[in-house]
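Exam prep: given the inputs below (a chain plus uracil), describe the expected output before reading on.
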Amino acid sequence: MRLDRRLSELALGTRREVQALIRQGLVQVDGQTVRDPGTHTDDTAEILVRGMPVDLRRNRSLMMNKPGGVLTAARDRKQKTVMDLLPEVYLSLGCMPVGRLDRDTTGLLLFTTDGELNHRLLSPARHVDKVYRAKVDLMLTQEDVRRFEEGMDLGDFVTRPAELVIEDSLTGIVTIHEGRFHQVKRMFEKVGKTVLQLDRLAFGPLRLDENLKAGEFRELTDEEIAALHLAAGMEADRA
Ligand code: URA
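Solution:
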């Protein structure tokens, strides 16, 4: 791929901006200063811009501890969205949230630039587990546990069997195997409870990093990405 295209795809600037950098002699490929923006580079070339190595990974994936009161959506003119919490570079690279959490829901939200991974993780056919802690308004009962286990008819669809573990009388840990719109809140509603607080603890093989405060994010490790690829039924070496 042409060097200027490569660098602009890696969010180092517009095509024009990176061409200017190259012409000024600020870009090195495999130890050589290159001044022709059309120079061909392959995937293994080591590239330095202003002496700093360029991160050549094709894809980036992140986890965020989503705070309450923020929409899971592309940027919105009126309301704050999760995209406003990410540095511009991730937006330029095309990072997108993997699914949605309601505005008031907190906890683990993944982002990736990898469209295929995103699509597969959300595919209803893959049944990627999601785990939530729900605080509700009325005491949870063993009958609720049984109703979750049976699967529930929510009108527009019947849920797969879900696990409800009662943590204390007003708090339950719920594992669902799909992810429909407002699913957890609707399941509790069906057993006569209102969810007062919902926090996602895990998505597929990944648990929320406890070191992330509300609104913070970090890149996934290679191991976490490999585990996600496995859950998505993809080969491991696509980083
Ligand atoms: N289920 C819900 O009801 N809300 C969420 O945000 C996620 C799952």
